[in-house]
Amino acid sequence: MSAVNTDYSTMVRRCLLTFKPFRIFVAGIGFFSLCFLMTSLGGQFSAKRPGDTPFTMRAEVLGGPESRGGLRKISDMLEVIMKRMDTLSKLGNTTTDSHRLDELSSALDRIQPIGLVERIQAIAQNMSDMAVRVEQILQRSMATNRGKDGTTGQCEVPKDPHYPDCPSKVDWMRARWTSDPCYAFYGVDGSDCSFLIYLSEVEWFCPPLTWRNQTSTPTHKPFPKRQAAFRSDIGALLEQVGTGKESLSFMKRRMRRLAAQWASAARRLHDSLRSQWREQKRILVHVGFLTEESGDVFSPKVLKGGPLGEMVQWADILTALHVLGHNLKISVSLKELQGFLGVPPGRGSCPLTGPLPFDLIYTDYHGLQQMRQHMGLSLRKHKCHIRVIDTFGTEPAYNHEDYATLHGYRTNWGYWNLNCRQYMTMFPHTPDNSFMGFVAEELNDTERLSIQRNKVDSMAVVYGKEASMWKLQGKERFLAILHRYMDIHGTVYYETQRPPEVPAFVKNHGLLPQQELQQLLRKAKLFIGFGFPYEGPAPLEAIANGCIFLQPKFKPSHSSLNHEFFRGKPTSRQVSSQHPYAEQYIGRPHVITVDFNNSQEFESAIRDIMRTKVEPYLPYEYTCEGMLERVHAYIQNQEFCAPEAPFPSANASSSWPGSPPSPFVLLPNSSALAWASNITPPSWPPLSALRLLASLEGQSCIDACQSAGLICEPAFYRFINIKEAFSGLEVQCEGVEAEINHIFPAFSVENSECGLQKDPLLFSCAGANTKYHRLCPCRDYRKGQVALCRDCL
């Protein structure tokens, strides 16, 4: 018996060591399976497309009962293979001869190809899935044939005036239905009947078919409404953010560092809202610029001085939404996006497999592009739910696709035909958009006192972590002036050698972690910018740590018309300095803006800074509480999916005061008009905040409102886009015409011309024309919170 065991063990060992019989066995089964599959399916495999794996089942594959039987046989055979391999592996579990079993196990470890068992398991699973899929397709096809009129299987294409596109869509489907596997996924099989079912039940180009059992069409119940509750623990959020990218690690470090401040802000907002009922929203956050498909150029630069502003903002958006108590899903890959949305398999030509499972989707321009590629017609249907995080802003003239194309505003971005308030900016520089913002770290009383005690009046820190930011022509001249008064410190990234762009008299600390950078700023008196990067978070953080921010004034202002950085961006905004928000909303003594090319002006500013004492300052809108307040107001009040009621309604004017009737009344000691109607139509912001002004000739509404200490409010345009607005401002009009023009409503004094806006997508605070005075809907705002009017909460 011992000899028999020895011979058997030797035979197994030799077989496994050579591996030839086993390889031949697996290869033979694989070849037989492939041939059998192709034969049984009648050669109906479509050509392999990019992205397909060798075992991907195309959704066009159809076949008869023999096809299903063939797939089941292949699946069964592979399961038998797995069972026999499993039996073979159990040889190692006997204890009769531990030495021989050790040798056998060692031999298996040496020769077994990595992942072989897992591959065979995957093949078996794919075969099983393929069989199920073909079964589903065949069931749909047979159900369709059973429901057709007569026995010929022919369906007549309806000619319904309510569905004028139906015939052309059927023609398109006849020619192109195999261009995307998603059509077969929805049961299209090449017959006119399947086209009509798809175009009437999945899309909406054809009328419902009378012979279809409409009760079989799934009806989706609305999601139940739940109350949102403030959260103070961010543990669940940190888990959702995930790992694997340095950018995500940076965002999580920021979330942890500010967690206590977010929790404290949530408690204060809860108290101020007095337990007001807040609906919990289902929110998808898709950070498109971090996906591999968009290139993710940011993650590799996190530790090399690259731009962090976008990641700062996204980290704060995620935290604000979580703390406000909403139901979040986070996506940083295309695969996650497709899974969350319910994208059918294929190339994105078909709608989603069900209703949109989210109330809101926060993304960026990269994510918006990815959704267009994969959501098909569903994007048009659901785009009202989207909010686009847009650093530099998008103006209406660039957003309106047809208008932008006809009038030279078309760029690589923009042209999405959204309501411009769906774009959300980092700073409140574009009133046509909503202001999302970010937060800067707040100081407690102890930290503020420590800063005042430890400030070094002769210490300056330069704004610029990358060596390329130090290549500014002429920097030696003004840095030499600064060096006569202060020691200059830099935080420029380098690997081995000091960057040659940094002058020798600058003490370079290298790239610092956030906490060490804050310690440096708490000592420094001055934070100086070279003009780039534009509109980042660092100046606000420096001012919050007690620094004075010195920045260059641009002459002329930078814009998409004259500067390479802004070229192609969907805005004509004139950027007057490196950080316009700091210049306009904070100003002296915390922010000083001068012409760096004027040595005398620059040196005078340095002397003023040396004499000036400032305390740490942070605008309320950049605190955690300010951001929570703003995001809460947007989520609960902004609504872009429900159609707006026409204004004025048929009988509205009968309730207006005055003769002739008008909804406006002149404010005392002012040229502005306020809303005076006894019947106030629903609006957010409320119409009590409205102030109607006429701009100067050639002046934008942004500047006109700002000069009156107000903010332009695009939500009010539909209420002032009426002829009574001209008469209320005592404008003489020979006639009032409606026109598609982003300057309108507006009037020309010289020609007595008055024009109303014909397309609501072109209501625009931005834009000016030397021929026209514009009608401007301005509003008041809360102290330290320009995004919200006084009665907006």
Automatic annotation (TrEMBL):
Protein family: Belongs to the glycosyltransferase 18 family.
Keyword Transmembrane in annotation: yes
Main location: Golgi
Cited PANTHER family: ALPHA-1,6-MANNOSYLGLYCOPROTEIN 6-BETA-N-ACETYLGLUCOSAMINYLTRANSFERASE B, ALPHA-MANNOSIDE BETA-1,6-N-ACETYLGLUCOSAMINYLTRANSFERASE
Pathway linked to the protein: Protein modification; protein glycosylation
Catalytic activity field: N(4)-{beta-D-GlcNAc-(1->2)-[beta-D-GlcNAc-(1->4)]-alpha-D-Man-(1->3)-[beta-D-GlcNAc-(1->2)-alpha-D-Man-(1->6)]-beta-D-Man-(1->4)-beta-D-GlcNAc-(1->4)-beta-D-GlcNAc}-L-asparaginyl-[protein] + UDP-N-acetyl-alpha-D-glucosamine = N(4)-{beta-D-GlcNAc-(1->2)-[beta-D-GlcNAc-(1->4)]-alpha-D-Man-(1->3)-[beta-D-GlcNAc-(1->2)-[beta-D-GlcNAc-(1->6)]-alpha-D-Man-(1->6)]-beta-D-Man-(1->4)-beta-D-GlcNAc-(1->4)-beta-D-GlcNAc}-L-asparaginyl-[protein] + UDP + H(+)
Assigned keywords, A-Z: Glycoprotein, Glycosyltransferase, Golgi apparatus, Membrane, Signal-anchor, Transferase, Transmembrane, Transmembrane helix
MF terms (GO), sorted A to Z: alpha-1,6-mannosylglycoprotein 6-beta-N-acetylglucosaminyltransferase activity
Superkingdom field: Eukaryota
Ranges where the Glycosyltransferase family 18 catalytic domain occurs: 182-778
Subcellular location per the Swiss-Prot or TrEMBL entry: Golgi apparatus membrane
Topological relation to the membrane, as annotated: Single-pass type II membrane protein
Class of the enzyme per the UniProt entry, highest EC level: transferase
Encoding gene per record: LOC120034526
Transmembrane segments: 21-41
Lineage of origin: Eukaryota, Metazoa, Chordata, Craniata, Vertebrata
The protein's Enzyme Commission number: 2.4.1.155
Descriptive protein name: alpha-1,6-mannosyl-glycoprotein 6-beta-N-acetylglucosaminyltransferase
Coiled-coil regions listed: none
GO aspect biological process, one term: protein N-linked glycosylation
Cellular component GO terms held in the UniProt record: Golgi membrane
